[in-house]
Amino acid sequence: MKYNFPITRTTTPKAKPDPDTLRFGQLFTDHMFIMEYTTGKGWHDGKIVPYAPLQIEPAAAVFHYAQEMFEGLKAYKSKDGRVLLFRPDMNAKRTTSTNERMCIPHLDEELMVEAIKAVVNVDKDWIPEKKGTSLYIRPFIIADEPFLGVRPSDHYLFMVILSPVGPYYEGGLAPTKIFVEDDFVRATPGGTGFAKIGGNYAAGMKSQEKAHEKGYEQVLWLDGVERKYVEEIGTSNAFFKIHDEVITAPLSGTILPGITRDSVINLLKQWGIKVSERRLTIEEVFEAGKQGKLIEMFATGTAAVISPVGELSWKDEKVVINNGEIGELSQKLYDELYGLQIGEVEDTLGWTVQV
Ligand code: COI
Prior knowledge:
EC number: 2.6.1.42
Organism: Clostridium aminobutyricum
InterPro entries: Aminotrans_IV, Aminotrans_IV_CS, Aminotransferase-like, B_amino_transII, BCAT-like_C, BCAT-like_N, BCAT_family
Largest sheet: 8 strands, antiparallel
CATH superfamily of the largest domain: D-amino Acid Aminotransferase, subunit A, domain 2
Number of domains: 2
Catalytic activity: L-isoleucine + 2-oxoglutarate = (S)-3-methyl-2-oxopentanoate + L-glutamate; L-leucine + 2-oxoglutarate = 4-methyl-2-oxopentanoate + L-glutamate; L-valine + 2-oxoglutarate = 3-methyl-2-oxobutanoate + L-glutamate
CATH topology of the largest domain: D-amino Acid Aminotransferase, Chain A, domain 2
Enzyme class: transferase
Number of helices: 8
Radius of gyration: 21 Å
Order of helices and strands: EEHEEEHHEEEHHEEEEHEHEEEHE
CATH architecture of the largest domain: Alpha-Beta Barrel
Bound molecules: 2-OXO-4-methylpentanoic acid
Helix content: 10-25%
């Protein structure tokens, strides 16, 4: 083995949760991975230790100028007992591009994947096996040098924590109601929209709150320049099936390059379904809705998997999609992706990685 991370095991293991009551991101396993970066020395001292609070100075750079990044992926246990990760190399690649944008030092992609595998292996008994549950993996990097000047930090922590989870939306696969935001914007060209950073999510909370007050679960973002083109949904990418074409926004720098997004595009192409990465106006979506041509809409994400949308609201208009029910394509994509992830569907693309 190329990497050998020392392991300190907890002396006070926690009770495993009841899989029937699991929600998203509320419980954490017994261990975590932690590694330091020091300028002049590089990344060093990667190890697995008991999950515990950090000791960190109030002056740590991350608290003041938000120099940080995060990732998200899931581990599953197959019926024959294998522990599987889904396309972890893609998370490592995205980490490289986020780090580059945020002036965070490069983290070797192979090392990142090996660190994830190592900590998942230690806590593999925490992987819930009930349908729709998984072990959510949250790798992240924070700048923890104590200083108040604005410049890249000279010290960082890379950590991986693990959380047994149920569905991201409480309703599971039940179609969500989405509110189109045309006041606030999430990203503009040249900004950080493509990077997986907390700041993008913090800036979206105001709109999410507004959507909740109006009875909607999430926000559909429009482009930040003309507020005309659909971009992404709160915590996931957005897909629209209009007539016989499935459309999603192109990766032009303002949307997150989702791994589920990429997987869905690949599957649709494999199935011979017309899929386009192109700009799509919100007018076109509502026009298609009025003409009965908006067949389905769904969100994709690691946390959300495939999440059908049953209603869209924009200004004073509303469109109900597929009678507010799960569409055929959304269900088929969910079954295929989840089947691949848990090792039930044959993986001809080499997407699953055994721990
Ligand atoms: C994920 O889907 O893994 C994400 O990172 C979204 C998160 C806000 C739950």
